[in-house]
Recover the amino acids of this structure.
């Protein structure tokens, strides 16, 4: 994969909330990860300047087939970086517009009364205490190993295991080579925020997945039982897909969709490393999938994590994302409503989880409310993860059934999750529990998600 295309794919992944900067770079398949990381980091640092340049020079209007993420990368390297040392046809395209981009940059400097490019950057905001304490979360891949074996492996590497956390404050206090079991999710280990495990044997062999806690919630809450047919509608890069496969114990069928062939290839690599079977990767826009196709006639669960503003992501690298414009939010919300409504049209669907890594009500509660109104009494919200402390904004009656996550309150990326179940006339009220949680309730602890099921021994030992 070419450098600029790889960088654009990482930016798109950040916008879609598919992981942190390091994870997306290391999972990109690009051979020179440091070069890619540096380019994406600097593009993020100049993001607000680049957006103004693109608008002022009308580059995206002139080149309608140029993806905005790729445009940012090209313009950054052309004007602020190394001057487009590679890039092939993309380099030629950017250079065609060099004169007006440079003119727009000069006008920006005049307006801001500065002479250096760096002076266009807003002063860096102090990182909040909450954000700086977002830990490194590690999901144990139960397709290959078990929690106990992974804990023992890290202990042999010199890490100190402090047991299961009882509060968010305990996680916030982690430092050095100490780690804990998460207080909510039974297969999630928690390390201090600066812990880098990308070169660790467990990661490179697929025994652990580096995935933020909030990103683990959708699959956990969906909770399909083994043997279910499940759709992951916007699946790349595949962390949530591999989590679904672990919940299903590789029994059943997953249909994982993404429209980008390079992202599908990346997802295939990740899922193969994780030991996932029974998953059909489909290079297709989910909106074009026919719900009446016989191959999807047994799909009872759908995980829908569509493109969003990514405003809840805590970037681990340098740079800050510019706040999306009102027009951008409106466009995203329109797409999200269409894709959620489309997902509900699958005839055998019983349970759907809708999630975003956005903080904006327009992409979250407003989307869910609009689609529920469209579908009338066919579907209704059920309470997602009752013990979770942060609930949805009171945008409509029932919004408290949704959950939100944030660095300040839950020590995670910003996230939103809603659970919709098909309403059956004459049946009992739909459960707030994922099916996986019902299978193995922990005696004496209740059966709501978050009550850790008893850990089982032993799958493949980690040596």
């Amino acid at each position: 994969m070419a450098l600029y295309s790889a960088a654009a794919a990482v930016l798109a992944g950040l916008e879609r909330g598919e992981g942190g900067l390091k994870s997306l770079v290391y999972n990109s398949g690009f051979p020179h990860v440091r070069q890619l990381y540096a380019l994406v980091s600097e593009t993020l640092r100049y993001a607000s300047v680049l957006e103004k340049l693109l608008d002022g020079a009308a580059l995206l209007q002139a080149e309608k087939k140029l993806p905005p993420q790729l445009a940012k990368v090209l313009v950054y390297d052309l004007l602020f970086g190394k001057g487009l040392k590679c890039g092939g046809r993309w380099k030629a395209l950017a250079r065609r517009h060099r004169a007006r981009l440079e003119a727009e940059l000069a006008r920006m400097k005049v307006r801001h009364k500065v002479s250096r490019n760096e002076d266009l950057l807003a002063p860096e905001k102090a990182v909040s205490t909450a954000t700086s304490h977002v830990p490194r979360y590690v999901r144990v891949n139960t397709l290959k190993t078990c929690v106990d074996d992974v804990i023992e492996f890290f202990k042999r590497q010199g890490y100190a295991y402090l047991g299961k956390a009882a509060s968010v404050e305990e996680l916030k206090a982690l430092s050095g080579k100490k780690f804990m079991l998460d207080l909510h999710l039974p297969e999630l280990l928690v390390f201090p925020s600066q812990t880098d495990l990308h070169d660790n044997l467990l990661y490179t062999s697929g025994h652990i997945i580096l995935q933020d806690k909030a990103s683990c919630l959708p699959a956990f809450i969906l909770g399909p039982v083994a043997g279910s047919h499940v759709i992951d509608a916007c699946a790349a890069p595949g962390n949530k897909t591999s989590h679904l496969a672990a919940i299903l114990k590789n029994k059943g069928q997953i249909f994982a969709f993404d429209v980008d062939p390079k992202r599908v290839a990346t997802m295939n690599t990740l899922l193969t490393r994780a030991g996932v079977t029974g998953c059909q990767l489909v290079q297709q826009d989910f909106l074009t999938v026919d719900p009446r196709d016989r191959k999807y006639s047994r799909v009872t669960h759908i995980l829908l994590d569509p493109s969003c503003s990514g405003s809840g992501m805590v970037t681990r690298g340098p740079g800050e994302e510019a706040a999306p414009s009102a027009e951008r939010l409106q466009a995203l919300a329109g797409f999200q409503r269409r894709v959620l409504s489309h997902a509900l049209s699958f005839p055998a669907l019983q349970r759907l989880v809708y999630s975003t890594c956005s903080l904006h009500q327009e992409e979250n509660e407003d989307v869910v409310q609009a689609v529920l109104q469209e579908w009338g009494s066919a579907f209704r919200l059920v309470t997602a993860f009752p013990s979770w402390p942060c609930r949805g904004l009171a945008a409509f009656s029932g919004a408290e059934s949704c959950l939100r996550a944030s660095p300040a309150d839950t020590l995670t990326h910003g996230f939103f999750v809603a659970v919709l179940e098909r309403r059956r006339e004459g049946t009992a009220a739909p459960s707030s529990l994922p099916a996986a949680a019902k299978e193995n309730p922990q005696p004496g602890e209740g059966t709501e998600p978050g009550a850790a099921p008893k850990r089982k021994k032993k799958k493949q030992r980690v040596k």
Confidence is low (pLDDT under 50) at residues 124-130, 316-322, 427-457. The longest helix spans residues 326-344.
